[in-house]
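Example record used in the benchmark description.
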Amino acid sequence: MLVRNCRNCNLVRKEPPKVEVQKWEEAERVFQRVHIDFAGPFKGHYFFVLVDAFSKWPEVFITKNTTSDTVIQKCRQTFATFGIPEVVVSDNGRHFTSYEFAHFLKTNSIIHKTTAPFHPATNGQAERFIQTLKMALKKRLQENVNKTELTKIVHQFLLHYRTTPHQTTGTSPAEKMFNRRLRTRLDLLLPAHNSKSGNRSTEGRIRSLQVGERVQCRNYYGRIKWKFGKVEKQIGQLHYIVRLDNGKAWKRHIDQIVTVGDALPKTVLTESTEDAEDYAPPEQAAEQEAAANQQPDGIANENRTLTPRRSNRRRAIPERYGDYVVH
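Model output (structure tokens):
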């Protein structure tokens, strides 16, 4: 009792024993609760950090300052992608306790929870990530770099962090956030059949045509629905060049082509002016263009006087003007 009542003794006494770390309640969904904080200055830049409590998905923004306007801008940018969270946890920095930021949170119906001063463990989600970020940057950055190079390094770090299984959840932040794995360079080492798995359901249903096979292809000019010809060439997996009975070449999708019997005779119909070619070989197109630009023999380049064409229709005065003399 004497020691507890001694002023000088109390001024030099040790801090009380630390209580057992109390964990935050588990978030039930993505962006239910997010933790925010600033890191830096580091190499002349600050880093605004936002971590989702459910998936451990981090967002990092390189900034020039730590003002409230910067915080609001980066939060608004993140919320536009992932939605508005229910709770935001931060420390008591001026940029997080300002009127502008408080008004921003109130406008979006966000509950703001702050930590005790000088007790960063309360905001452990953001603090632990910041320590990991600092270690990664120190390993990569030994000299002063510009913002472009710094941004590249941060993005590379984020890709690795987001695709690495987290110690708490057992899955990567990307899988927890999007319910899928993000593609990385490590996927290049996987067997090739993984990339073809998405086409298994359609491989057995794709028709194929043989070169020289007699077919009819869909016509979109005039009233004749189908034109007949033979398959001349296959382009890719689903497109073909069909040489029609009239000599023209059309490019058609497999869904626009139907096979017919080989005994079907050739049918050459009179083509209308609307029946233009769908496909012309490059050499044929070049010849047609050259012929169009060539002047016929015997015609000079000088300007010619053209006589206006007049109608041969008989002109008559309307009946309502019958009582008048028209000059």
